[in-house]
Amino acid sequence: MIAFGNWEFDPMKLSNPFPHNNRSSVHIWQGYEDKVVPSQIQRFISEKLQWIQYHEVVDGGHLILHYSGLGEAILKALLLREEDISYKPRSSKSVS
């Protein structure tokens, strides 16, 4: 139902949950090789909604949470605002 059903909202119409505090943001961590949720969709959404920070695991699949060292990188990004440049998206090409 979640992946293939009809949602009652449009993710592109989500509003910034931090309108008065631009120091906060939402983070999406995505595996580039994910076969369940295509990385192109997450990239497209994060490009349109500027309050989303997009991180991409180059050789990552759907279960990236179990990848060695990734948990530490996520915590550093969220708690210390230290971003590992190896998790920057490959390109900024959007889904057409």
Any overview of this molecule?
- This protein is an alpha+beta fold and 96 residues long.
- The chain has a domain at 24-87.
- Helix content is 22%, strand content 12%.
- It contains 2 helices and 2 strands, in the order βαβα.
- It has helices at residues 39-48, 70-80, and strands at residues 26-31, 52-57.
- It is globular.
Mean pLDDT: 80
What would the principal axes of the Cα set say about the shape?
A: globular
Give the helix tally: 2
Strand order of the largest sheet: 1-2
Q: Outline the low-pLDDT stretches.
A: none
Strand content: 5-15%
* Elements, N to C (H/E): EHEH
Q: Structural class, judged by helices and strands?
A: alpha+beta
Largest sheet: 2 strands, parallel
Distance between the termini: 25 Å
Summarize the amount of helix as a percent range.
Answer: 10-25%
The number of strands is: 2
Using only C-alpha atoms, the radius of gyration works out to 14 Å
Provide a quick synopsis of the model.
The protein contains two helices and two strands, in the order E-H-E-H.
Key traits:
single chain; 96 residues; alpha+beta; two-stranded parallel sheet; 2 strands; 12% strand
Fold topology:
Layout: E1 26-31, H1 39-48, E2 52-57, H2 70-80
Parallel strand pairs: 1-2
